[in-house]
Design a protein that fits this description.
Layout (H helix, E strand, L loop, with lengths): L7 E2 L4 E2 L11 E6 L5 H6 L19 E5 L20
């Protein structure tokens, strides 16, 4: 996906333990949240998370995908106007 050096950063462990798996045949990656700024961690002498500015020991990861339609998929039904669907 991208070169993220770590997703977990604690006093005694720093490493990649969170992942997003996808199938390129059915999902097209549109974007992703970049890596956490390692320089900020070093400059502020952060020894681990949680921290007042990072409330979890897991660094957030996120990706946006679009579904690649296949020939055997049915199109979803259109939204119903009375049920709050959009025009």
């Amino acid at each position: 996906m991208c070169n993220i050096p770590f997703t977990n950063y604690t006093l005694d462990f720093k490493g990649m333990i969170d992942y997003i798996f996808s199938t390129p045949q059915s999902l097209a990656r549109l974007g992703f949240l970049g890596a956490f700024d390692s320089n900020w961690v070093a400059q502020n002498k952060i020894i681990g998370f949680p921290h007042p500015h990072v409330p979890s020991d897991h660094i957030p990861i996120m990706a946006q995908y679009a579904v690649i339609p296949t020939s055997h998929q049915r199109a979803p039904p259109p939204p119903h106007a009375l049920a709050g669907g959009f025009p």
